[in-house]
Amino acid sequence: MDHYIFLAIGLAVIVIGAMLLTDGAVALAERLGMPEFIVGLTVVAVGTSMPELSVSVMSAVKGNSDMAIGNVVGSNIFNIYVILGLCAMLSPIVFSQTNIRRDIPLCIFASLMLGMFTLGGEVHPDWDNRITRLEGAIMLATYISMIWVALRAEKRRRAESDYLAVTTDKPMPVWRLSAYIVVGLAALIFGGDMCVDNASQIARRLGVSESVIAITLVAGGTSLPELASSIAAVLKRRPSLALGNVLGSNIANILLILGTSSVITPLDLKGVALSDVWLSILGSFLLLASAVWIGRNRLTRVEGGVFVAIYVAYIATLLS
Asked: Interior CA angle at 44 toward 15 and 183, to 5°?
């Protein structure tokens, strides 16, 4: 039981660290005169994925591929089937044309890239089921390119509408934002190390693979920021924000987090089953189907219930 307690403490430390680091980074960006939309597209978007980044990078440093890949795959599955499912059950999520034409296709593209790099051995005998350093670098380059294109498009839109950002908020003192950044980074490293070590111990005690623990306990814990922010968006009658949060997080999880982790150490697909990766990929296609054919530009309450039911059935199968 002690390892479960320490795992929970580690996850809590990670979430707190991510919040502090994000707040400090946003305050620093504002002091440097960065436009609000650039802060949102970079600092805030990456901030909600910091727990996954912490666990996966620490796992890569320790040579634990199962934990690194399982955490990302499990988090992406949790984000789509549980977070979007619950949000849609609370309030139907309307898909915008930007979601349909850009955001969901980008999420599908990132998911297919994950499948291509991890499931290659199932397609061609000369390929392997691992993410190499070169493939990780390609993932990182793709993510940076996506951010660059999004920034240029947003700048163009702001310029055409003569947008002028005005803020009356008092800037955060330098000492405080510095403390937030330093303490946040320290908490992410400490919490990530605690999570990896205790999750590995739990897996050994239960006699299951570390990937199963990563996909279930660790992935659910590291997805808490996305869950909290998405539910809050729905309660504020802005469910579309929940969709953007999940899509952005899933893209960052694959391209940024797995890209960074595999550059540190090549990641082998060992304990993570092919069905886990396929379910993650399927989630993106189900969103597209809901947007275009099934729900007609919306994720309905019934579809949200189906998403949650799929996740429950998946976990039951995984633990049986």
From this structure: 45
Q: Which CATH number fits domain 2-319: 1.10.3720.10, 1.10.600.10, 1.20.1420.30, 3.40.50.11690?
A: 1.20.1420.30
What gap in Å lies between CA 192 and CA 199, rounded to an integer?
10
Model-wide pTM > 0.85: no
Instruction: Dihedral sign for Cα 263, 199, 223, 77, please.
Output: positive
Query: In this predicted model, what pLDDT tens digit does every residue of 288-307 receive, in sequence order?
Result: 998 888 767 888 899 999 99
Q: Contact at 8 Å (CB) between 244 and 103?
A: yes
225 closest CA partner among 47, 67, 38, 76 = 47
Angle at 66 between CA 61 and CA 67, to 5 degrees: 60
Q: What is the 3-state secondary structure (H, E, C) of the chain?
A: CHHHHHHHHHHHHHHHHHHHHHHHHHHHHHHCCCCHHHHHHHHHHHHCCHHHHHHHHHHHHCCCHHHHHHHHHHHHHHHHHHHHHHHHHHCCEECCHHHHHHHHHHHHHHHHHHHHHHCHHHHCCCCCCEECHHHHHHHHHHHHHHHHHHHHHHHHHHHHCCCCCCCCCCCCCHHHHHHHHHHHHHHHHHHHHHHHHHHHHHHHHHCCCHHHHHHHHHHHHHCHHHHHHHHHHHHCCCHHHHHHHHHHHHHHHHHHHHHHHHHHCCEECCCCCHHHHHHHHHHHHHHHHHHHHHCCCEECHHHHHHHHHHHHHHHHHHHC
Region of residue 169 (phi > 0: left; psi between -120 and 50: alpha; otherwise: beta): beta
pLDDT tens by residue, 14-41: 778 777 877 777 777 777 766 544 555 5
